[in-house]
Predict the structure.
Amino acid sequence: MALNCGIVGLTNTGKTTIFNCVSKTKAETSNFVFSATKSNMGMADVPDERLYEIDKLIKSAKVVPATVNLIDMPGLAKGASQGEGVGNSFLADVQKTSALIHVIRCFDDPALPHVEGSIDPVRDKEIIDLELQVRDLDLVERKIQRVEKLIKAGEKDAKAAMDFLRYLKEHLENFTNVRDVKMNEKEEEVYVRDMFLLTMKPVIYVCNVDDASAATGNTYSQRLSEAVKDEKTEVIVIAGRLESEIAELESDEYRELFLHDSGLKEPGVNRLIRSAYKLLHLQSFFTAGPKEVRAWTIKQNMTAQQASGVIHSDLERGFIRAEVMTYPDFMHYKTEQAVKEAGKFRLEGKSYIVQDGDIMHVRFNV
């Protein structure tokens, strides 16, 4: 899917360390402010135990998980919207993302100075918010200028567009993110969508804490959670340095011991990836056979015909039907034949809405 999550935050928050924990592509980390001048692109496997449970029954040659695309942005600083640090090039990269993972520093480290001189997660969040809001305000004002010309030309719908854009401008001037502004479907699709506003994007907050706080968080992360409690969002606690050490271990056994000693059931980055997948409104369906058990990434509410195109365009073009069984049914009955005998195996047409965890085989003819 051409959807991705942008990892944003102030400089020296541990963004790139967390990116390296989850991405197959590794990026260089540094203690220097503004050491990064370009974004890092990566792809992360989506942890899904269902794949491996299916494989225990199928015994396939390989298992292929779903993936999510990540973009690690250069660290931001106050004044980025006016060109400070990497400035506008950073904000242009943010504009290309579908959702944001906002990493906030929640740890003390004298060897890693904070760009603002002290640790204050709420202040840091507000700095990023403000920079994105200023960029959005500029985009809205530019569109207002274009709509003014349409009004003069007698465009029928231009007055309604202008009223809404001025309403949006007022909210941004009052430090409100666009995702928190009430709007109807037409306002979102017709007046807002084409601007790719930064504060319109859904966001997850990641509190990067010290090793000792990996399982429980700390006072810094608690303050951030309290500050965003009224937002429709999620706050995830991750000890970035600890997670990077776990990721470097080659043995599953050592990783399990490390996690246990840290009070963790699984790496925090696993929760982050699953949350990012959900934030992008993505889900998985499975194909299973002797060659591979595979998770395919689709948008929520996709039809069976649309989903088949994710496998190959020929399947969508020549779609006949989908043979479907649910993951719970397959786990319960153990074989496809047993699922059929139980009356749980279904034939679905083009308009069937694929559910997360469906196991599908597509029949087609081209």
User: Anything to note?
Assistant: The radius of gyration is 23 Å. The mean pLDDT is 91. Residues 126 and 175 are 9 Å apart (CA to CA).
